[in-house]
Amino acid sequence: MINKLIVVVISTILIKVCSGVQVWETTLDQSVLLQRQGDVNPESGNPNNNIQVTVNSDTYQEIYGFGGALTESAGINLLYVKSQNSQSYWNTLNGLFSPSEGAGFTMVRVPMGSSDLSVTPYYTYDETSNPPDWFFADWSWQRDTTNILPVLKDILTVNPNIKILITPWSAPTWQKTSAGADNAFYWGSLADNMYDDFAFYFQTTIQKYQAEGINIYALTLQNEPQNEPNSYPVMRLSAQNETALVKLLGPKLSSNNINTKILVWDHNWDQPDYPMDILSDQEAYNVVDGSAFHCYGGDVSAQSQVHDQYPNKEIWFTECSGTFANNDWSTNIQWNTNNLYFGAIQNWASTVLHWSFAMDPTGQPHAGGCDNCRGIVTVGYDHSTVTYNEEYYGMAMISKFLKYPAYRLDCSLAGGWGCMGTTCFKNGDGSIVVAVSNFCQTPQDTVIENNGQYVNYTVNVGLTTFVW
Questions:
Q1: Is the peptide bond before 131 cis (omega within 30 degrees of 0)?
Q2: Nearest to residue 240, comparing CAs of 297, 193, 284, 293?
Q3: CA distances from residue 234 to 116, 177, 303, 324 in whole angstroms, order as listed
Q4: Angle at CA 232, nearest 5°, toward 230 and 233?
Q5: How many CB atoms are closer than 10 A to CB 238?
Q6: Distance from C-alpha of 468 to C-alpha of 424, rounded to nearest angstrom
Q7: In sequence order, what DSSP letters do the residues of 441-456 get, joined into one string?
Q8: How far apart are CA 379 and CA 71, in angstroms?
Q9: Cβ within 8 Å of residue 246, ≥6 positions away
């Protein structure tokens, strides 16, 4: 037996015809992190190797990108950095969002009001309830303009091509069945007479963003509509509830010339029947753009169940958080790769998002719910030092090399001993990105073949990505 330290590597290789192939690596022992290796030259002929990745010509879903959530907690932590060390702040934003200097993340999810990663008191954009503020005359997003919008606007200066997804954790409490209760944020559904008002709440939110010069690319109707933990803002909605809501919301947005995509579900893989029930209603089907999924239950193959039933509707993957309790860097990279960076994409996802962009070393601040959620980056107690976590490096090893519009590209793996994998992409400029995982115990000699040309490369234990 060969006894070697297991080192998982994420390598990304950009391959263009008649030019050298770039190779980038990130090792699980963290000795190499998102570093470019020596280029390799493609050859012609008949490669002979037990392990071969073959790039085919078929393309599948469009890829919108990778990213995370700009929670209130993330905004607070990043603004701490800005106040203490402006250079560190801008370095961090460039590291996250710059296509040339960093990971090139393109997806930002923003809560509509409080989530569990907020500070108290909880808020929505209009809590005037006596009498109800039907026309949102008392609309206020002071918390957002203080803790979220400044960072969001800075992000857009780094990467103007960011796509923003908005999601409510709760409707204004006067719109809920829990209205008037001391803990109205913690429970309740949408009141029967408030569906049109909640649809107007979405419309107003989007228009407020537009007034700030910010376009909202997509929305989900409700974060985790089957989750009611009694510890942070939630709202329980059944598939029938979301069906009724989306049939009001779609026409309302259309009549106001708002082209924001509408996504349903936004919860775990364990209930694929929920989005399929909504899409089975023809009127709802006509206005729904797709379904969104989280990682906290079920199996990623559920995305394909929904896609296979409704192939013209998009699949998005919108949340999966690391935790300080599960802090094994190597194990986390492997699970995330198999289930998210490769798994979600291979099961038709157009996006892959982790949870909060930035938390402190103990997952603060938070207001209920996850008390040890790890950010994509960790802001140190000095509010100046920023550490990039495994979620950052895992996503960056693909995201950095996508040039939009990008699409999933068919490719196959022969050999690999059951501990290797691959996922491929075709960029808008014609370049091909081939990401290869090697979670075996030793480096593996591998051939990457594309359009009659091939490269030989010893893929270190981990991920290797080639772009032709």
A1: yes
A2: 284
A3: 9, 12, 24, 24
A4: 105
A5: 14
A6: 11
A7: SS-EEEEEEETTEEEE
A8: 14
A9: 221, 262, 264, 278, 284, 287, 288
**Report field, pTM of the whole predicted structure over 0.90:** yes
DSSP state letter for 173: G
First to last CA, the chain: 35
Sign of torsion, CA 375 380 381 383? negative
**Alpha-carbon span 142 to 140, nearest angstrom:** 6
Mind giving me the DSSP string for 269-286?
TT-THHHHHHHTSHHHHH
Rounded distance between C-alpha atoms, residue 98 and residue 103, angstroms: 6
With a CB cutoff of 8 Å and minimum separation 6, the contacts of 205 are: 112, 125, 166, 216
Residue 81 three-state SS: helix
Would you call 299 exposed, middle or buried from its count of C-beta atoms within 10 A (0-12, 13-18, 19+)? Answer: middle
Instruction: Please name every residue paired with 378 in a beta bridge, in sequence order, or none if there are none.
Output: 359, 387
C-alpha span between 106 and 68 (Å, rounded): 9
What's CA 435's distance to the chain center, in Å? 18
Instruction: Report yes or no: 178 and 245 within 8 Å, Cβ to Cβ.
Output: no
Cα–Cα distance, 244 to 248 (Å, whole number): 7
Helix, strand, or coil (residue 352): strand
Q: Tell me the pLDDT of the chain (468 aa) as tens digits.
A: 333 333 334 444 444 444 689 999 998 889 999 999 999 999 887 777 778 999 999 999 999 999 999 999 999 999 999 999 999 999 999 999 999 999 999 999 999 999 999 999 999 999 998 888 999 999 999 999 999 999 999 999 999 999 999 999 999 999 999 999 999 999 999 999 999 999 999 999 999 999 999 999 999 999 999 999 999 999 999 999 999 999 999 999 999 999 999 999 999 999 999 999 999 999 999 999 999 999 999 999 999 999 999 999 999 999 999 999 999 999 999 999 999 999 999 999 999 999 999 999 999 999 988 889 999 999 999 999 999 999 999 999 999 999 999 999 999 999 988 999 999 999 999 999 999 999 999 999 999 999 889 999 999 998 888 888
Who contacts 142 (Cβ-Cβ below 8 Å, separation ≥6)? none
Return the half-sphere exposure (C-beta side, CA atoms, 13 A cut-off) of residue 355: 23
Alpha-carbon distance of 102 to 86, in angstroms, equals 17
